[in-house]
Amino acid sequence: MKHICGLAFALSLSGILMITGCGVRQKTIEDAERRISVLKEKGVPDSSLSEAEVQLYQAKNAKERGNRGVAKKAADSMLVLIAHAEARHKEAMNRLKPTLDSLKEVFSEARTELSGLQLRHLDSLVGVIDSFYNMDWLLQAEAHAEELLEYLPKLQADEKTAARLKPKLVGTWVCTIKKDKKGLPGAVEHKIFKLKRNGAGEFIEKKKGQTSPGLKEDWEFRSKGKWGVKGDTVRLFVDQYTVVKQNFAEYERPQEGGKPYWKKISHPTYDSTITDGSQDRFITYEDLKLDFHKR
Length: 295
Prior knowledge:
Helix content: 40-55%
Number of strands: 9
Number of domains: 3
Number of helices: 7
Strand content: 25-35%
Radius of gyration: 34 Å
């Protein structure tokens, strides 16, 4: 036993001599930098390492200036702080893995109660947690898991609302806007949602008529994709955008007493495949009932 204690004391003394014998060795600095880097890679927050990094900076700075006393003091504090951070991280890992495994089971069970966009949302949030978990960033995984646990009742309530509204939404919904201008025939604008039972959806926008004393418009755009219901909101995920027509006419008055006329301007038609969500549409059920009529 005395031999073991003597050996431990010798090893401890040799560690101290690395700092005190010749000031602070470069290897001590490099080892500290490596240990801090490893902790960061494991997801330890910067706030938990900031004091150790301050002492590391002071030790390096004092060493470069030849101030061995200040370098030693900073290095001593640095090593203690790093050791504490490593111990806290190890304790957190031992505590968090079982906790996170239990929460993942809760989320897995919740999947059986959800469908459609509610299930899609849950899976995306669980994916973030799994990503941190697989990297051993368990502190971050825990934070996201706790947020999701608090959010689950909202998802479950949204599921009930969506299930109640979806049958009512299937069909064609039309909004017609007629803008009458004094002394002008006006223009008629139509907005149409076509929501099919199989999940296919289409949104049509078109306008035709004179919109100002100097402008006539005649255009039509179509957005196609898949639709779903998130709580009380209809969402159309557009993957195809078509410009059916875009024709205009501007009223021209020649300067030299010529007869005024309507100058026609036509822009190209085209089809676009949409992958970035830039043409997605959404509307609440209440707004749909208020502004559209079902036919």
